[in-house]
């Protein structure tokens, strides 16, 4: 029996080559897309979960409640980690962790810029990163200690064992001893670094972090396995009260735990409550994967039920000779699974061919995990779900046919069957419309971000790190540069121009309510800051060497002026910490952080000979190459043993929105795939409809019908279905995209024309698909079509 089932299935596959090919290709594309998305999702879900003790690992977060809003971040005091170990018996290990830093590491003639962090002595106890040399207890327990990755050990010393105990020079200033070599971090590690330095050294360089009022680094802890996180959270909430003297009735800092396993996917907080993050993209593409499978499965159902008249007589004969309905269902489900198996083989082949390009696009290292049982479970699940979805309705429908009516030739399909087929087509195009609208909105939002006026000119702006002797010789460096061709202006900033996380509540002004603790972002800059960035001065002036008192004066942005409340802030007194001065300039608001957050109050201080961490150079348009040569020559003169490194501010800006860019590209690709698969099904249905109406078309042509009228006749029903899909999908798409845009402080409006454009695209593609078969049928010789009947 099984052999006969297989023979029948094979014959039907060969006999109906066109429809079989449409089914197999449609299913293959849907499954290949879903499989790619599944691999991407699995990788996203695995980030930060590779540690054996991961369920006990937490990050300390804070809700800063001030000025009528709640801001959540992980910036802590530098002494918090040690205090937690003393005060909380539930904490097994705790370690501070600084933001990423870049330094020039040299060993003999081997010199290169590397990135790393400062970390507490418990770091390797918290995270079970394999150590190839050294021990977790001694890796970071003294200021001159250094832990490096296998990669650095091999680059500088040849092997991990050869690196142990050797000396590495930092920025040609200080030497550190390698006391541990750790395994290269996997791509699934949320923190990526190639070296770690001792925490006490970090506090020595940043003594302001040894008090409770200032913050900057993060803190990671490991709880005892039997500890109750809820109880720890309850104690953490009020931990800083009594320690931080700034906390009062209007300003509070409440600490809480965030599981390490959630840090990557749930990084966004709103009003102190977790509000998503990367998990939104995971959910989005999981839905896309289901959509693509549904669209491909609907193709199969539609074509199978449409061609049911071709199988009706076979069903009638088999029922007459005693076939049970269950055996017929088994046969048709078997045929569906056979087609699905062929499609799955094609899908896996496509995925293996497309993975290198997909990895390049998503910046991942995905592979087909054929060695893991879960991969085969995934394939089996994909086969069964898709095969069952595609074959269930046709099997149930065909097996229910009345054999007497079939063999008498009186079989007529009711309106319910046709309504079901049309509903499936509408559903396909609803899903396709959702994806088209989503793609257009995401693309426009990305374009808006990339072209929005940031309040400064990021073109022809170069940033170089103030490494080695550059910071100490900044004045000389600047003067030499300004004498070179192609250089327009030079300044520096203590903070990253694109990511300024420095905040303070230590700002006083005339008329301020002394009980309020209002947060201001702040930075230290050099002369010509406004000139170099091309910031717009609304009133007042930039810092200038002509005014000796500017060392204690301030520039503020419009958001700060509004919060302070001065009607005309220029010339008004302002005190930052213990530095009284006055406001000399009001700058138009500009973006110094991501467009995901609104512009916050900013205070800019002068420090021409201090804080030159980031040197900013504006070049003359069209002379960037010449300017770079000049910059490199002077850098090499000041830092002869260090390599020259630089970046374009515009490129760094694009990197901030890399995730959104990748999502936009993937959305576009999968939306195109959805439309293509849907149109494959439409092509098949149009071909079948034309085939069924061959005699009618022939008669109409004999009676004088034009090609255009016949094309319209065959197309009008499908066009109606697509129009219904557009009407249904538009409000759904509007709601979904409004929710996605809530993650941006600055966003586009979802205009009506986006839906009109998406509708025109969907309708146009559908018309092209239908017209191909319609025109082919309309041009057929009526004599041949009538003779064939």
From TrEMBL:
Subcellular location: Cell membrane
GO cellular component term of the entry, any: plasma membrane
Protein's membrane topology: Multi-pass membrane protein
Transmembrane segments: 21-41, 281-303, 336-355, 375-398, 419-443, 666-690, 702-730, 750-772
Residues of the ABC3 transporter permease C-terminal domain: 287-403, 669-782
Taxonomy, superkingdom: Bacteria
Pfam family, one: MacB_PCD
Domain MacB-like periplasmic core, residue spans: 20-238, 431-632
MF terms in GO: transmembrane transporter activity
Keywords: Cell membrane, Membrane, Transmembrane, Transmembrane helix
Protein's name according to its UniProt entry: ABC transporter permease
């Amino acid at each position: 029996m099984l052999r006969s089932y297989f023979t029948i299935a094979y014959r039907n596959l060969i006999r109906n080559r066109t429809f079989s090919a449409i089914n197999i290709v449609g299913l293959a594309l849907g499954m290949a897309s879903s499989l790619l998305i599944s691999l991407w999702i699995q990788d996203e879900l695995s980030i930060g979960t590779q540690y054996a003790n991961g369920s006990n690992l937490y990050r300390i977060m804070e809700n800063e409640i001030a000025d009528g809003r709640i801001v959540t971040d992980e910036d802590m005091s530098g002494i918090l980690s040690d205090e937690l170990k003393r005060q909380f018996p539930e904490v097994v290990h705790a370690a501070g962790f600084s933001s990423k830093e870049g330094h020039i590491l040299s060993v003999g003639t081997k010199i290169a810029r590397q990135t790393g962090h400062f970390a507490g002595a418990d770091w390797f106890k918290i995270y079970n990163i394999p150590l190839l040399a050294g021990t977790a207890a001694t890796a970071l327990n003294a200021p001159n200690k250094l832990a490096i990755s296998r990669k650095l050990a091999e680059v500088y010393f040849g092997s991990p064992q050869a690196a142990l105990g050797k000396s590495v020079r930092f920025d040609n200033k200080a030497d550190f001893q390698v006391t541990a070599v750790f395994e290269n971090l996997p791509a699934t590690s949320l923190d990526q670094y190639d070296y770690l330095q001792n925490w006490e050294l970090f506090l020595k360089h940043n003594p302001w972090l040894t008090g409770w009022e200032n913050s900057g680094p993060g803190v990671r802890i490991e709880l005892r396995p039997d500890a109750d996180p809820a109880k720890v959270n309850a104690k953490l909430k009020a931990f800083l009260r009594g320690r931080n003297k700034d906390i009062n009735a209007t300003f509070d800092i409440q600490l809480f735990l965030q599981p390490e396993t959630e840090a990557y996917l749930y990084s966004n907080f709103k009003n102190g409550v977790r509000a998503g993050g990367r998990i939104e993209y995971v959910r989005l593409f999981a839905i896309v994967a289901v959509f693509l499978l549904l669209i491909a499965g609907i193709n199969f159902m539609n074509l199978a039920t449409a061609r049911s008249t071709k199988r009706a007589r076979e069903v009638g004969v088999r029922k007459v000779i005693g076939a049970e309905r269950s055996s017929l269902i088994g046969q048709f489900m078997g045929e569906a699974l056979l087609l699905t198996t062929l499609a799955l083989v094609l899908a896996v082949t496509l995925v293996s061919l497309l993975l290198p390009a997909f990895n390049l696009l998503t910046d991942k290292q995905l592979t087909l995990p054929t060695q893991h049982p879960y991969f085969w479970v995934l394939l089996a699940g994909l086969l069964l779900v898709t095969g069952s979805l595609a074959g269930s309705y046709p099997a149930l429908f065909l097996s229910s046919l009345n054999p007497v009516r079939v063999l008498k030739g009186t079989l007529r399909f009711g309106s319910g069957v046709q309504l079901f087929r049309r509903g499936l087509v509408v559903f396909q195009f609803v899903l396709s419309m959702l994806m088209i609208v989503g793609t257009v909105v995401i693309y426009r939002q990305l374009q808006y971000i990339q072209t929005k006026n940031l309040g400064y000119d990021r073109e022809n702006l170069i940033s170089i790190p103030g490494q080695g002797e550059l910071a100490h010789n900044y004045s000389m460096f600047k003067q030499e540069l300004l004498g070179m061709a192609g250089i327009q202006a030079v300044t520096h900033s203590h903070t990253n121009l694109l990511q300024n996380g420095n905040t303070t509540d230590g700002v006083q002004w005339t008329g301020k309510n002394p009980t309020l603790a209002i947060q201001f972002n702040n930075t230290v800059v050099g002369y010509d800051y406004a000139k170099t960035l091309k910031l717009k001065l609304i009133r007042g002036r930039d810092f200038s060497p002509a005014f000796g008192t500017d060392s204690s004066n301030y520039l503020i942005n419009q958001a700060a002026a509004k919060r302070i409340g001065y009607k005309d802030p220029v010339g008004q007194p302002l005190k930052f910490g213990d530095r009284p001065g006055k406001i000399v300039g009001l700058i138009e608001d500009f973006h110094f952080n991501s467009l995901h957050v609104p512009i916050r109050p900013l205070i800019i201080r002068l420090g021409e000979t201090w804080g030159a961490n980031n040197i900013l150079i504006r070049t003359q348009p069209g002379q960037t190459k010449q300017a770079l040569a000049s910059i490199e020559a002077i850098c090499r003169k000041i830092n002869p043993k260090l390599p020259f490194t630089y970046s374009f501010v515009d490129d760094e800006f694009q990197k901030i929105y890399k995730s959104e860019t990748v999502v936009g590209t993937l959305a576009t690709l999968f939306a195109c795939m959805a439309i293509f698969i849907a149109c494959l099904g439409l092509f098949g249905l149009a071909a079948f409809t034309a085939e069924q109406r061959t005699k009618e078309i022939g008669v109409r042509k004999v009676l004088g019908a034009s090609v255009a009228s016949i094309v319209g006749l065959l197309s009008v029903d499908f066009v109606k279905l697509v129009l219904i899909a557009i009407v249904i999908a538009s409000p759904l798409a509007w709601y979904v995209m409004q929710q996605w845009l809530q993650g941006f402080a600055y966003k586009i409006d979802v205009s009506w024309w986006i839906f009109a454009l998406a509708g025109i695209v969907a309708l146009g593609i559908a018309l092209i698909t239908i017209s191909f078969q319609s025109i082919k049928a309309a041009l057929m010789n009526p004599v041949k079509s009538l003779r064939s009947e």
